[in-house]
Every structure is written in structure tokens, then in C-alpha cells.
Amino acid sequence: MRSDDTTAIQHQHEAFIQKICASEVVWCLENKDGVALSNSWEYTNGQGEPLGLICFWSEEAKAKVCAKDEWFDYHTISIPLDDFIEIFCLGMANDGFFLGTDFDSNMYGHEIDPLDLILEIHDALKKMAKKIKLKNYPNMQILVNDIEDLMNG
Fold it and tell me: What percent of the chain has pLDDT over 70?
């Protein structure tokens, strides 16, 4: 991938963070079997196999564009930001999945560890002076502290 492509994808990811923090909604593709799964282009497991990847979008229209080819029978679903953090990101981290943000119709986008994404969301919310209420944590800072302890421990 060319460096200008990498820069564009990074800017697209940063815009994803800003949009989901502002709207408090994340979009995903789903069918009767569950969410749309893919494989990472960047990350592999210990056996050299690509890690599983689930894509999320900041806008419904961006997700709809990707409901084609192998995902032709998928539809968009909206996910509240608190559920995205606590259910999807934490669950994906636990299951060893990576996350794709605002992938385009060619399935190119930013890939990130879900725990790193939570930290980025937290930073963006702080800069916006915005708080979200979590169901399983008294506040976002406690979740962030737990993640940082896990990453540093």
C-alpha cells in the first residue's frame, strides 16, 4: 500500500472516531447468522493465519455500500456507542478478533485492536468534554484503567 493510501486510511479512521463519539452510534452489517466477518490484511496469529476482523462504520450509508458480493444478504444495524464498547469491543478482544473502521467498498480501511480503539474513543470523548454511561463500569475511566493495566501487565 502506498504511503498516501495509508495516510488517507488513517484520516478516515480519525474521522470515524469523531463521528461515532458525536453521534454515539456505530453501524455494522448483519444477517441471520450474525455480523459480517472478514480477515485482517495486516495481522496474523501465531500460525501465520489472518486474524478475524469485524468491520464497523460511522454512517449507515457507508455500511450499505459494503453489503455486496459475499455480504449481499446482510443489512445494516445500529449499535449504541456504550454497547459497542462493552459488548462488541471487549468481546472481540476476548475472542481474538480485530476491528475494521469505515472500510470502503473495496474492503480497505483501518484495522485496530479493539482495546486500542476503546482508548482512542475515550481520548476523543474527553476532548469533546462528553461522557457516556456504561452498563458494566461506573465510568469510562475505570474501563480505561483496566485496559491499561491489562496491556502493561
Answer: 97
